[in-house]
Every structure is written in C-alpha cells, then in structure tokens.
Amino acid sequence: MIRVVFILLALISVVLAFRWFKKQSAGKRWQALMLVTAVILLGLVATGRMHWLFALVGAALPVMRRLLGLIGYLPMLRRVMGTLRGQPQSQTTNSTNNSTNLTVEEAYAILDLPIGASREDIIQAHKQLMQKMHPDRGGSSHLATKINQAKDVLLKTTQ
Known about the structure:
- By secondary structure, the chain is an all-alpha fold.
- The chain has two domains: 9-74, no CATH class; 98-157, DnaJ domain (Helix Hairpins), CATH 1.10.287.
- The chain is built from eight helices and no strands.
- α6 (104-111) crosses α8 (141-157).
- The longest helix is centred in the N-terminal third of the chain and has 22 residues, at 2-23.
- The radius of gyration is 32 Å and the shape is elongated.
- The protein starts with a helix and ends with a helix.
C-alpha cells in the first residue's frame, strides 16, 4: 500500500513540475533542466550507480558550452594583451597599401600581358587568372592578392 502512495505522489509531482515547466520562459526552462540534471547526477553518484568522473563530465557540459562561445573573443584578447605588453599590433595590410610596392613592369608580368595592354585586356587577364588562382578554388591567397594588386596598379596607369 505504501508503494502505491509513493507512486501516486511521484506522478502528481511530475505532472505539477511539467505544468510549471511549460509556463516558464526559455531561459528559466534551461536553468531548471540543468538543475534537474545536476540533481539526478548527484543522486546517481551518491547511490553508487555512477562513477563520479562521469558525473563531473556531465556537470561540465553547460560550462563548456559557455566557454566555446567565448572562443570568438580570443583574437581581440590577444591584441589587448599585446598592447598592454607594449608589443606592436600585427595588422594585415590591404591591397591598396601594397600596390605602391609593385612596379608597372611587375604587374604586367604577373598578369602575363605585354607592356601597354588595353584596359579590357587587363580586366580579362585578371578575370582568367582569378578563376584559376582564387583561394576558394584551391589557389593561394598570396597569389590572389598579387593578381589583384597587379590589376589595380595597371588600371591606375591606364586611366
């Protein structure tokens, strides 16, 4: 008879908990679910049905989820730490800064064009080379940058 009473109490508590759970916001639901999971894991460890290391892994999962979200901030943190130490920041240079380092002759050689080629020839050669050398198609980003720089230098000189 006592078992029937405990089973009825357990069923009533599950129904009441489920109703409460449905009324809560998503954040509260998540917190409640984590709390219930932690209590179940602690109960299993206390009764000897689960090794404590597995319970520790289960308890670490929500923490790991939050830590994975923070990985995106690592580059910014690295720059801040470098600034605090007095190290110069390493900045990527864009193609406009490097275009002055490229001579017109080098630009013609990169695009494989004769000196004095027309604007249309430059654009066509750039398009063909980028189709072959673009990083999305397995090419090198360095070569793609050089090709873009060469096109920029030559288009500036043909204006």
